Write the structure tokens for this entry.
Amino acid sequence: MTGRHDDVVTVILEDHRRMEDLLRRMRSVEADRAQALEQFAALLVAHGEAEESQVYGALKRFENVDDEEVEHGAQEHAEGNAALLDLLEVPEIGSAAWDTRLEALAKTVSHHLDEEERTILNGARENVPGERRRELGAAFLRERERHLAADCGSPDAVRALVRG
């Protein structure tokens, strides 16, 4: 099945909106914050790994897609993973330490989402042909699902990713 929903830009933007929703849920005392954190951790890691392995390298081949921003995006993934690990290692959800680390994570991730959308994704939308964007979207989704199936957001998996 192909169409606009397979476009790599659309798929990535949908993930970004889901991450923002999960961050809001983690901030809400009325939500299941532990569940929101578990879902967020898995999505953040799987999304970043899929972007780096399936999308970023391919986008660098296109003129007018900013290679430096692509490299910077990968650096920001590492920063986001480190902030996520800091939050995952707080034993009590809702504690002052947890709230402080949640806000640090939210700031790091929000900065990355905004910057990626303004630079990399706009460049891809304007300079990468639709058929190629659909191919990249399908590859991104396959890779993201592979990471999700491997429990990539678990504390141990995030620790291994951050600490190498």
Q: What stands out?
A: The CA atoms of residues 12 and 130 lie 15 Å apart. Residues 96-127 form the longest helix (32 residues). The chain has six helices and no strands.
